[in-house]
Amino acid sequence: MEPPKEQQQQHTPEKSSSSSSPPATITSASGCCNNCGGPTISEPPPLASFPEMSPPPNYRPIRAPAINLPHNSQAIILSPVPHAEQVSVISPPYQFQSPVKRIHSPDDIRRFHESPSFKNFLGFVVSLSESIRGHKISDPCHLSSTVTAIVSILETLIQWIDEIPPAQQSARYGNVSFRSWHERLREKSESLILEFLPDEFKESVIEIVPYFFDSFGNSSRIDYGTGHETNFAAWLYCLAKMGIIKEEDYHGVVARVFVKYLELMRKLQMVYCLEPAGSHGVWGLDDYHFLPFIFGSSQLIDHKYMKPKSIHNDDILENFSEEFMYLSCIAFVKKVKKGLFSEHSPLLDDISGVPNWKKVNSGLLKMYKVEVLEKVPIMQHFIFGWLIKWEE
User: Fold this and answer.
1) Is the per-residue pLDDT at 373 higher than 50?
2) Which residues have a Cβ under 8 Å from the Cβ of 187 and sit 6 or more positions away?
3) What residues contact residue 298 under an 8 Å CB cut-off, 6+ apart?
4) Which of 48, 142, 278, 337 is deepest in the core (most CB within 10 A)?
5) Composition bias, kind Low complexity: at what positions (predicted)?
6) SS3 for 249-279, per residue?
7) Cα–Cα distance list, 179 to 1, 32, 166, 218, 346 (Å)
8) What is the overall mean pLDDT for the chain?
C-alpha cells in the first residue's frame, strides 16, 4: 500500500496554530539540515510505517504509552498479503481448557506465527474482510440465531453503561466507574454466553469466556486497545471453530456484530474516558482500533465514487459514515481530536493518498499482521487453550 508518486517525498507536517513553541531545525533522514545542507547534531526522525512518508509530529501523550515505536516499514512491505482460510471446525472428543498466556519474547511470537493456529486465525480475519466487500452496513444479510444473540448481548452491555453513570472526579481520563461496569461483566459473562451455546458446547465456557471478558478493556488501567479488539476477533474465531458461527454468517458478523461492538466500545471510550492502551494514534491508525479500518476499506473496494482521498470531504463523511466503517472511523477521529488531521493522524492522512481501496485493504492486512499480531507488548496478553493451540 504505497502512496502515489506525488506524495512519496518526505514532508514536514504543518505547524498547528495553537503551538507557541519556536520552529525547530528541520532535518532530513540523512542528518543534514534541510535549510542549509549542513550537518546537524539531532537524531533523524523515525520513518513512518510506509516508506518515505511524513514522520509523526511532536506528540505529548496523556501518559507514557506502552509502545511508541516506529513501524517496521520494511517488514510490512516484504510481508505477503494474508489470504482467507476456511476455519477448521473441531470434532469430538472435546478437550476445552482454561487458556493461559504463552508469549513472552520475539521467539515466542515467531513460534506462534509459524503455527497452523495463527495462519487459520488470520485467515478468518481475512474471510470476514472479504465477506463485507462491496456491501453497505445496511445491506440485507443472513441473520442466524447466533448472530442475533450476540448482537443482543452487546446491546445489553451498552445498556449497562446507562445504568452505571461516570463518577464525578478531577482526573480527565480513566473514570473509576468503568471498574463497576467491568465487574458486572465479570459476573455476567458466562451466563450471557450460555444463553446461546448448544448443549454439546456448554463446557466450552471455561475456554471462550476469557476471550470475551478481555475484549472490552482493562479495569485496572482503565484502558482499551488493539489487543482487546483482537481478543474479540479471537472469541468469534472460537465460535467458528465450534461451528456455531458458519461461513454464511460472516457478512452478518461484520455488518451486525462487529458494528454493534464498535458502537459499544466508542460509548465506553467516551463515557468512561478510557485511555488508549498503546500508541495514542501517533504510530497507529487511531488510538483504539484497527479491524474496522480493514473491514471498512473492504466495503469500499471498487466503489464508483469514493476514493481514499474522499476522507477529506466533510460532506461525504456526514452522509455516508453510517454505511461505511472506514468513513465512520475517520469521522469519529475528527470528532474527538482537535487540530490539523495531518498532525494528529499522520498515518491515516498518508493512506488517503493511496490510489485505490484494494491497495489500502491489502496494506492494512499486512500492517495488522506486523504491527499488532507480531508485537510482544500487545500479544503477551493473548491466551491459548485447546481451540487456539500453542504449538510447542
Assistant:
1) yes
2) none
3) 129, 130, 132, 133, 357, 361
4) 278
5) 16-30
6) HHHHHHHHHHHHHHHHHHHHHHHCCCEECCC
7) 40, 50, 10, 9, 33
8) 84
Percent of the chain residues past pLDDT 90, beyond the cut = 69
Q: pLDDT tens digits for 100-112?
A: 999 999 999 999 9
Nine-digit cell at 337?
481530536
Residue 25 corresponds to which cell in the numbers above? 531545525
> How many residues are present in the chain?
392
In the chain, the largest separation of any two C-alpha atoms, in whole Å, equals: 74
What sign does the CA torsion over 17, 23, 28, 33 have? Answer: positive
**Beta strands 383-384; 223-224: pairing state:** unpaired
CB neighbour class for 50 (10 Å; exposed up to 12, middle 13-18, buried from 19): buried
pLDDT of 135-178, one tens digit each? 999 999 999 999 999 999 999 999 999 999 999 988 878 999 99
Q: Which CATH architecture has domain 105-384?
A: Up-down Bundle (1.20)
In the chain, at which residue ranges do the beta strands (DSSP E only) sit? 100-101, 223-224, 275-276, 383-384
DSSP notation for 291-355 = HHHHHHHHHTTT-SS--GGGGG-HHHHHHHTTT-HHHHHHHHHHHH--S-HHHH-HHHHHHTTSS
Task: Give the Cα separation of 235 and 194 in Å (integer).
Answer: 14
Pairing of strands 275-276, 223-224: parallel
Of the candidate ranges 28-42, 80-94, 153-167, 187-201, the one whose mean pLDDT is the lowest? 28-42
**pLDDT, average across residues 286-305:** 94
Closest CA to 244 of 255, 254, 235: 235
For residue 171, the tally of other CB atoms under 10 A from its CB is 10
